[in-house]
């Protein structure tokens, strides 16, 4: 993983297009890249805040400074990992704005987590179903349900400009981690195909740079996942194997510190293949079905 050169624009307001500004939170890491990017939508009157980020005093102060005297119509969360939604509550308390967006989710995974854990405190005032919209004076955001990275993940389409706020579902710097049991590879691929069929102009992810060729990227991501699936099947054709043996073969060029995350994605692929009756598990070993 290669980070861009410092200094990063932490706490600064970046104008991306007439209706969209961005503020970077100070939470860089192997799963957040340079940090969570919070988006402010609207130029005239009430704003929407997308993915308010971690409950961090420095980031909250930067958001409030960026908002200034403008009212906030909605605080929108794409999903409830702790690098995305915890700042919703203090921001709502400071602005009086409702929290609107993804559904709440509390789920423990088996074994140590390798991505950000879920925000147990998230309590939305309104959940947006797929295709539902909310509007301000000069903007309309429509929910696009994209389960897979998490079961409650949702993107937001800005109808006035063709931009899509993609949270962690599609990122320009890395593929998304899919961690069972809540993360679901079949759902993730279906959600990628759903976005592939859309005509969005640009993606604004929660981590990393904007994506200026969205359909090209989603096509490549689908191809990458299908290639990983074929790789697993080839390895299992040679001999039954445990995930711990598959990961070193599949991720030879990847930093070993990321192998636990890679193992979770391999597990997600195997569960999908098992549900399609292509493989079966026998204890820790996975075997291809003849």
UniProtKB/TrEMBL annotation:
CDD domains: metallo-hydrolase-like_MBL-fold
UniProt cross-references to PANTHER family, sorted A to Z: ENDORIBONUCLEASE LACTB2 (PTHR23131)
InterPro entries cross-referenced by the UniProt entry: LACTB2_WH, Metallo-B-lactamas, RibonucZ/Hydroxyglut_hydro, Sec-metab_biosynth-thioest, WH-like_DNA-bd_sf
Domain Metallo-beta-lactamase residue range list: 35-207
GO molecular function, one term: hydrolase activity
Entry keywords, A to Z: Hydrolase
Name of the protein in its database record: MBL fold metallo-hydrolase
């Amino acid at each position: 993983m290669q980070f861009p050169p410092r200094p990063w624009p932490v706490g600064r307001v970046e104008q991306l297009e007439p209706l969209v500004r961005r503020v970077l939170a100070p939470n860089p890491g192997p799963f957040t890249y340079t940090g969570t990017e919070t988006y402010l939508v609207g130029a005239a009157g009430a704003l929407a805040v997308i993915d308010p980020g971690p409950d961090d005093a420095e980031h909250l102060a930067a958001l409030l400074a960026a908002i200034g005297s403008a009212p906030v119509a909605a605080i929108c969360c794409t999903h409830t990992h702790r690098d995305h939604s915890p700042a919703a509550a203090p921001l709502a308390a400071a602005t009086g704005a409702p929290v609107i967006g993804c559904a709440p989710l509390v789920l423990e995974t088996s074994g140590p987590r390798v991505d950000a854990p879920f925000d147990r405190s998230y309590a939305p005032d309104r959940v947006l179903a797929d295709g539902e919209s909310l509007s301000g004076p000069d903007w309309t955001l429509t929910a696009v349900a994209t389960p897979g990275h998490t079961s409650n993940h949702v993107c937001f389409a800005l109808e006035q400009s063709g931009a899509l706020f993609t949270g962690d579902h599609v990122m320009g710097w890395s593929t998304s981690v899919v961690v069972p049991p809540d993360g679901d590879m079949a759902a993730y691929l279906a959600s990628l195909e759903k976005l592939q069929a859309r005509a969005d102009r640009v993606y604004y992810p929660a981590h990393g740079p904007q994506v200026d060729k969205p359909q090209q990227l989603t096509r490549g991501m689908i191809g990458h996942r299908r290639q990983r699936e074929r790789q697993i099947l080839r390895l299992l054709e040679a001999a039954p194997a445990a995930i711990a043996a598959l990961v070193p073969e599949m991720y030879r060029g990847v930093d070993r510190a990321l192998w636990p995350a890679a193992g979770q994605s391999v597990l997600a692929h195997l569960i999908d293949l098992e549900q399609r009756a292509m493989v079966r598990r026998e204890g820790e070993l996975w075997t291809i079905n003849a």
